[in-house]
Design brief:
heterodimer, A: 775 residues, alpha+beta, six-stranded mixed β-sheet, five-stranded antiparallel β-sheet, 23 strands, B: 162 residues, five-stranded mixed β-sheet, globular
Chain lengths: 775, 162
């Protein structure tokens, strides 16, 4: 069972990646990049999702994905034009697929008719366009991936005349291949169809490997009276010719359906294969051959007499007969290793002939593994970045060990005093190299964990679409800097806060179109989501051009809830920050968008958990800006090492504004007896760390230092320390792992000499003081 | 001076020991002997200083670096209310696991490894609240009284009261 669970987990991982990719593809398609690469990528993604869903029996997902896939297939073929409407429908379909995946993952049931409207529209589109297709006779520039000529199956004839007749009737145009080829017998079981696999797709995949000829074996089809609708009567014989085809490549195509079908692969005339390469057709002649069968009638004329006879008594083909002309041309251009005589044979309107154009396959692995066609081999292999999936725990272990290495290395360096340096020059040089290598190693390891924020950002367009629908507002989402990279752990923690912030903007910020027009703004509101690197931090900004925070209302609610005492008059900025107070919601009616009992306080606590901060600014009538400040990585911190009493402490460099010698700083007394620091006309709260931490200090007050820090919301605080030792990088260690949280301490780190230094929690210190004063 | 590899040595003995017996690491604080179950002890190391932790009670000596992990050190003498130990290089830290956490206990010296019968464990007599709070029981070994340390109790209440 656990194996199955593992597979499932992997499947859902893949789904989330694929859905992310879908968002990206459609963002590009929406922006006008309507090329076939994008469409193929979309098709592949949907097909992969469907394939896995079939294996796990998520039938609702399979059903929907299948309908969607059909639509995409038609779009890809050019049978359906990719209009803006279709794009919108597809984006909606992506959302529905995502919902289905989520439902499958969580086990929640979606309504039985979920997505039925879209499904109906797919069907309508597919039907409508395929009828039109008959009229224009497939003159579009894009033709089908797989051309086939329908063959009437005269069941009575089969059963009347026995097997000999069947052979005559259906084995009409075998590829007359003198040289080496592969013969594949493929007999699907019922389970194959039950798992949502489609032989057509397998053939497509095969077709990408080389020239192929597929013949359906229909002997098993019983008289109509014995026909069992769910039974499988059809099997296929496939002949493949390709100079560098191997059995493994063929087997790989059928990898997904192994066990659900009988498959045999045999090579015939292997020795001759090399020769075939020499007989590749020159292009001009190929065109001449192509020119002939441009109409279905001509094709019929080309066929064997028997075929013509058979088709004769079939007044109309059962399905529209697409012109194979374009396909034939492709066949010539793309399939190496065949003489034309052979090719000419293969285009006879017999059993389905599949063109050998390199079709991007449903299964990415197959695509990567299969050299598509000769000239393209190199290209398709070098495409894309190779990657492996690694358990994050393993990476964390490496990160930790590199951290230890950095510490040991700096310890060694510190141990080198002048006499040793003078005596052991080789050792010194070795240590210098070690320092460089260690630093490089550390950077590389950190880079492994870094990921573009794209993976979170890409989930947001869908959220905004949903919010717009639910609120009846017009909202546009702009994303900037989505390639900014942050530590993976930080990214993981980012999704919830961002979702809340965007919900907040859409629900409270952006006004209805009418209101916006009345205020002289465009009726569509904009939410801008941006990421940028600022020193050791990443800034993520969610900005909207909505109404801004209704301060009167916020203050009113805060007073009602007792968050703010009646006699306190907070500043505008303080009121804005109130939206982060626990349990605070100003939504006038509890909509199902916000007001679910989780509010902006969750954002604050989530962000704090990963060492970040949130700041909000609002302009009445103009909009709101929420800024998340996040550490670049959770594992390594740039710090300033200071001394308080006898103990080493470190202050995160990112929060330090400047350092001043006490003798040069101007302190002022305040009535309470406390001190404030005056810096460039600003009065800043002073915290003497020695007093705060109950340390005994013997340093002359004049020789001590002020470390001016910036806490949350750009509030400054001046820390007094005994000495400043220097800057360094440290690896953060948790105190809570073996102890408990200590006020004013954000954690610990290990210094070069092996001793522990505590990390000062600037924000925590400030908050603790406020509490003390309040009490 | 480094950790004594005591656990391996004890492997055979513990196999011999009946289910009913208990193996203790005994250590001394002044004249008094205390013990903890040997299975909780991770290593024993010499006192080498600790980084003080602010805003904690007197019996928290601070934190040390144990191969990259930060481990808090508790002064057992101070925990019993006898004032902080003035540690020398001869003082010892016994690193133990309490639940899923590792903690160190600063003691004067490790004295012995004892095997006692569970039947010989007596309740702590009522009276001194510190004793009843911090000891699980009292066991007699060769006419010495050994107090069984309740590690959970020792490490609790480390933070200063707000």
């Amino acid at each position: 069972m656990s194996d199955l669970d593992d597979f499932k987990a992997t499947y859902f991982d893949e789904c989330s990646e694929l859905l992310t990719a879908l968002e990206e593809e459609f963002a590009a398609i929406e922006a006008g990049e309507r090329d076939s690469d994008r469409l193929n990528a979309v098709f592949r993604a949907i097909h992969s999702i469907k394939g896995g869903a079939g294996a796990f029996g998520f039938s609702a997902l399979v059903g929907f994905a299948h309908a969607y896939e059909t639509l995409l297939d038609y779009v890809r073929d050019g049978r359906i034009e990719l209009t803006d409407d279709v794009v919108v429908l597809c984006i909606r379909a992506n959302d529905i697929v995502a919902d289905h995946v989520k439902a499958a993952q969580t086990g929640e049931a979606l309504p039985a008719d979920y997505g039925i409207d879209e499904k109906t529209r797919f069907d309508a589109l597919a039907r409508g366009e395929s009828i039109a297709d008959d009229d224009d006779n497939g003159e579009g520039p894009d033709e089908f991936d797989i051309d086939f000529t329908p063959v009437m199956v005269n069941l009575d004839a089969i059963h009347a005349s026995g097997e000999a007749a069947v052979d005559d009737a259906f084995d009409m145009a075998p590829m007359q291949i003198e040289s080496g080829h592969w013969e594949i017998k493929f007999t699907p079981h019922r389970a194959l169809y039950a798992r949502a696999n489609d032989p057509l797709l397998l053939f497509r995949e095969l077709a990408a490997l080389g020239q192929m000829h597929v013949r359906a074996v229909l002997q098993e089809i019983p008289p109509l009276s014995d026909f069992e609708p769910f039974a499988v009567y059809c099997s296929w014989e496939i002949t493949m010719v390709s100079p560098d085809l191997t059995e493994a490549m063929i087997r790989e195509v059928f990898e997904f359906v192994e066990g659900d079908c009988d498959i045999s692969v045999a090579q015939v005339g292997a020795a001759a294969i090399g020769q075939a390469e020499d007989t590749v057709a020159p292009a001009p002649v190929a065109k001449a051959v192509v020119a002939a069968p441009s109409e279905p009638d001509d094709l019929l004329a080309l066929a064997d007499d028997e075929v013509a006879g058979l088709l004769d008594f079939a007044p109309e083909p059962a399905a529209p007969a697409p012109t194979p002309a374009a396909a034939v041309q492709d066949t010539f251009e793309e399939a190496p290793g065949l003489s034309f005589a052979e090719l000419a044979e293969t285009i006879k309107p017999a059993a389905p002939v599949i063109k050998a154009a390199p079709i991007p396959m449903a299964k990415p692995t197959a695509l990567a593994a299969a050299p598509v066609a000769e000239g393209e081999e190199g290209g398709s292999r070098s495409n894309g970045v190779q990657s492996i999936r690694v358990d994050l725990d393993k990476v964390d272990r490496v990160v930790n060990m590199v951290g230890e290495l950095v510490i040991t290395q700096s310890m060694l360096t510190q141990q080198m005093d002048e006499t040793l340096r003078a005596r052991y020059t080789e050792l010194v040089r070795g240590l210098e190299v070690l320092a460089q290598t260690t630093r490089g190693l550390q950077d590389s390891v950190m880079a492994i964990r870094a990921q573009p924020v794209k993976s979170v950002f890409s989930r947001m367009p869908r959220l905004v679409r949903e919010l717009a629908t639910k609120t009846g507002k017009k909202i546009k989402l702009e994303t900037i800097g989505e390639n900014t990279e942050i530590d993976k752990t930080v990214i993981e923690q980012l999704s919830d806060p961002l979702t809340h912030m965007i919900r907040n903007s859409a629900d409270h910020g952006i006004e209805t179109p009418e209101k916006r027009l009345a205020r002289g703004k465009p009726d569509t509101g904009t939410i801008r989501l941006s990421a940028e690197q600022a020193g050791g931090n990443i800034l993520i900004i969610v900005e909207d051009d909505g109404a801004g925070i209704n301060r009167e209302r916020v203050l009113q609610v805060a007073r009602d809830k007792g968050v703010v005492a009646p006699d306190v008059n907070p500043t505008e900025e303080q009121i804005d920050q109130l939206i982060f107070a626990p349990g605070f919601s100003t939504a006038e009616a509890l909509s199902d968008i916000s007001g679910r009992g989780v509010g902006m306080d969750v954002v604050l606590s989530n962000i704090k958990k990963i060492g970040g901060s949130v700041h909000v600014r609002s302009w009445t009538g103009k909009g709101t800006r929420m800024t998340l400040r996040l550490p670049l990585t959770l594992a390594v911190l740039d710090v300033m090492l200071v001394k308080v009493g006898d103990s080493p402490y470190v202050v995160p460099l990112s929060s330090i504004v400047e350092t001043i010698q006490c003798s040069r700083a101007s302190f002022e007394r305040v009535p309470s007896g406390g001190q404030v620091l005056q810096v460039r006309g600003e009065y800043v709260q002073v915290i003497d760390l020695a007093k705060r931490f109950d340390m005994v200090t013997e340093t002359d007050p004049e020789n001590r230092f002020v470390v001016l820090c910036e806490a949350e919301g750009s509030h400054k605080v001046a820390l007094i320390v005994d000495d400043i030792i220097g800057q360094q990088q440290v690896v953060i260690k948790s105190l809570e792992e073996n102890f408990e949280r200590v006020d004013g301490i954000a954690g610990g780190t290990i210094l070069g000499d092996g001793n522990v230094a505590l990390i000062v929690d600037v924000q925590g210190l400030k908050t603790a003081i406020v509490h003390k004063n309040a009490a | 001076m480094e950790a004594l590899g005591m656990r391996d040595e004890m492997g055979d003995k513990s196999a011999i020991a009946a289910q009913n017996s208990l193996q203790l690491i005994a250590f001394s604080i002044g004249e008094q002997t205390y013990g903890v179950e040997i299975t909780t002890v991770r290593e024993i190391r010499a006192w080498n200083g600790a980084t003080p932790l602010p805003n904690t009670r007197e019996f928290v000596r601070g934190v040390i670096n144990l191969r990259g992990t930060i481990v808090p050190i508790f002064d057992l003498r101070a925990r019993f209310g006898d004032g902080q130990t003035s540690p020398t290089k001869n003082h010892v830290v016994v690193v133990m696991s309490v639940g899923d956490k590792w903690v160190g206990i600063l003691v004067d010296a490790v004295s012995d490894i004892l095997t006692v019968s569970r039947d010989d464990i007596h309740n702590v007599p009522e009276g001194n609240s510190i004793d009843t709070e911090l000891l699980n029981g009292i066991v007699t070994h060769e006419s010495r009284m050994v107090g069984l340390i309740d590690l959970h109790a020792v490490v609790s209440g480390a933070k200063m009261d707000a």
